Amino acid sequence: MRDSFDILLLPGDGIGPEVVGAARGVMDLAAEHFGVKLRYEERKIGGEAIRDEGGPVSDETLEAARASDSVLLGAVGHPDFDDAPVRPEAGLLKLRKHLGAFANLRPVAAVPALLDASPLKKEVVSGVDVLIVRELTGGAYFGEKEEGDERASDLSVYTKEEIDRVARVAFDAAKRRKRRVTSVDKANVMATGRLWRKVVTEVSKDYPDVELDHVLVDAAAMHLVREPGRFDVMLTENLFGDILSDEAAMLPGSMGMLPSASLGEPGSPGIFEPVHGSAPDIAGQGKANPYAAILSAAMMFRHTLGRPDVAEAIEQGVSVALEAHFLTADLGGSKTTEQVAEAVGRWIGAGEGVA
Ligand SMILES: NC(=O)c1ccc[n+]([C@@H]2O[C@H](COP(=O)([O-])OP(=O)(O)OC[C@H]3O[C@@H](n4cnc5c(N)ncnc54)[C@H](O)[C@@H]3O)[C@@H](O)[C@H]2O)c1
Ligand SMILES: CC(C)[C@H](C(=O)O)[C@@H](O)C(=O)O
Ligand SMILES: [Mg+2]
Fold it and tell me: Which domain holds residue 59?
């Protein structure tokens, strides 16, 4: 097991620095507990990089990401750049493409201590445990674009290879879970949807012990709030995955609860980031919920650093802090970002009797 890692921190815009700061504090305590050495480099991305470096992500930052063991990112996006020719979000897309991070894992689990925070009924949310596997480097996000005042277009392209490789990530994950993959597409209207369905069905033949079903994206959006317990692994393309994951955030009750891992080929650095954005409405007020960023750091230890022991200890800290009602305003509580991070740090590895 390795015990020394180079982490690139990209806090970004809005609440990004607040939640990355909180996650870093927790990572440091976890590292100390396990005798792991973390070396950090911090760089700019998004609006702050446009302001200070002339573009949303510099070549040096892309290279630093490639040279690191993993990237922990906060968020990008700021209203100041809404009409700018290059937007902060372009930096994140470039980084994902640069690292070949094609598989975005977004776990969504109901948290017993948060059943009251969800706008959905307790009996609908209770026991939910879904893994959204979102394709991250293809589709309309990366197709040819035409910008214009009279006409605009975003071409959505998928190749067989792009669908095949992300489908395998979903089926492999399902083997370690409840062995069910729901593939979400729009095959009744879109050519990419029909290719998606065909390739996923082909890949499923290599996984005879995993059950596959196909659901159209509009119906999937409905099932996600009507009966989320029916899903185990939900596999989908880039744009649908973006939309469905924000919808899924309402199962635990807040955008501030959803972590993510963006992974490429084995051995390449992953990008770990909360699913939420820069939340300009609450930035700088100490109100941001840091659980998603902290849980993203845990995913980093599990998925690219090969230290599931550290990941579990952080997750235990999170569970105990949630049960002890260390909740920010989005979850109906009154704790600050820092108070939540301190509580998680205090209970790292609580299950091992370390607290
Ligand atoms: N990965 C990313 O960097 C990322 C993801 C989504 C959106 N964005 C960008 O963020 C900007 C704002 O977008 P938006 O407002 O649509 O989405 P958002 O996720 O930033 O915010 C949506 C709502 O959720 C709340 N929220 C989000 N995260 C929270 C947290 N950790 N704690 C408490 N409340 C939280 C916000 O206050 C807001 O009310 C845009 O520029 C968008 O492009 C970036
Ligand atoms: C900021 C934006 C480019 C990004 C996306 O659409 O992928 C975000 O919404 C996300 O979900 O990670
Ligand atoms: Mg999104």
Answer: 1-106+257-355
